[in-house]
């Protein structure tokens, strides 16, 4: 992958960030924010501070005070917001996290009319207008799922345009069945995303669910055959798998933890740690180790974004 150290390097992540509520139903709630690609953007900015990498987020929010506060907090994380649309008639989505005693989480969502879903409802978005200056585009299966057909087409067409001129395109397979009309539609868009990607980040269980594959071996075979130069498979507590240029898989151990508090953003933070390391010149296996270390730290804290101090030792300078 291209190193940003010798010149200005612009990495843009597209998706949806929602307001986050943590707590018990009908009890006290703590308010924060999160979303898969936004989580990755925040952790990537933290891990890349001082390297010359410019991390930016493309989405839509409302014109309300909560949206304004989101933009302020993103900027505090070192995330550029010039590609964010302010939608005059929509608000951010909302979700509540419920965590069981083992740290596994479930979500309740209020997002059907979120502003992010309408990002492509104008003739030329800030993201498309900036195409000639983007060095890396990162999006996910959720990024695709929240858009209508035209929006998905324009996002993937942009990815194809960037790939054609030599930019990096990263696709994370986050698959949420309830966001799609059916698995056949989702598969078609995933296949297009993979065809345009230079790096694919797969959560094994998500791809198994999407493809109806039984067992890890068929899914790893599917991932190995993808038309993507660099593929990384996340397998929870099991070793991550990395392959380059159709070579064999290399396993990279995860970092054991004594107690899992909250698995929210585990995969998102892995992606950030991996990408930051690769952009700083580390080999794929070293990058996977960095991603595993960051994910292990994240799952020991509640919420999507953990305190800066809790991960300061993992950030390279």
Would you summarize the structure shown here?
The chain is of the alpha/beta class. The chain contains ten helices and 14 strands.
Distance between the termini: 19 Å
Shape, principal axes of CA atoms: globular
Mean pLDDT: 94
Low-confidence stretches: none
Largest sheet composition: 8 strands, mixed
| Count of alpha and pi helical runs | 10
Structure overview:
This protein is of the alpha/beta class and 317 residues long. It is 34% helix and 23% strand. It has ten helices and 14 strands. It has an eight-stranded mixed β-sheet, sandwiched between helices. Strands 3-2-7-8 form a four-stranded mixed β-sheet. A hairpin with a 5-residue loop joins β2 and β3 (29-34). α1 (36-48) packs parallel to α9 and α9 (266-279) runs antiparallel to α10. The model has no long low-confidence stretch (mean pLDDT 94).
List the defining traits of the structure above:
317 residues, alpha/beta, eight-stranded mixed beta sheet, 34% helix, 23% strand, globular
């Amino acid at each position: 992958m291209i190193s940003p150290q010798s010149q200005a390097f612009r990495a843009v992540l597209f998706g949806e960030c929602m307001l986050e509520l943590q707590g018990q139903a009908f009890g006290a709630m703590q308010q924060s924010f999160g979303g898969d690609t936004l989580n990755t953007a925040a952790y990537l900015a933290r891990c890349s501070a001082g390297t010359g990498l410019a991390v930016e987020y493309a989405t839509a929010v409302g014109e309300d005070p909560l949206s304004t506060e989101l933009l302020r907090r993103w900027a505090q994380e070192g995330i550029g917001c010039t590609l964010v649309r302010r939608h005059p008639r929509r608000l951010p989505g909302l979700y509540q996290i419920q965590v069981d005693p083992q740290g596994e989480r479930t979500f309740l969502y209020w997002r059907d009319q979120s502003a992010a879903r309408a990002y492509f409802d104008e003739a030329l978005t800030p993201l498309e207008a900036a195409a000639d200056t983007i060095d890396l585009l990162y999006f996910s299966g959720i990024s695709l799922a929240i858009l209508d057909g035209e929006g998905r087409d324009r996002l993937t067409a942009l990815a194809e345009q960037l790939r054609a001129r030599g930019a990096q395109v990263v696709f994370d397979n986050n698959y949420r069945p309830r966001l799609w009309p059916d698995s056949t539609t989702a598969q078609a868009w995933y296949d297009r995303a993979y065809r345009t990607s230079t790096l694919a980040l797969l959560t094994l269980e998500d791809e198994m669910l999407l493809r109806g594959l039984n067992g890890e071996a068929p899914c790893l075979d599917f991932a190995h055959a993808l038309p993507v130069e660099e593929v990384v498979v996340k397998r929870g507590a099991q070793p991550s798998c990395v392959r380059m240029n159709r070579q064999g898989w290399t396993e990279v151990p995860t970092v054991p933890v004594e107690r899992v508090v909250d698995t929210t953003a585990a995969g998102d933070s892995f992606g950030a740690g991996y990408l930051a390391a690769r952009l700083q010149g580390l080999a794929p296996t070293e990058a996977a180790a960095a991603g595993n270390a960051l994910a292990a730290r994240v799952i020991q804290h509640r919420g999507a974004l953990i305190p800066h101090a809790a991960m300061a030792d993992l950030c390279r300078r």
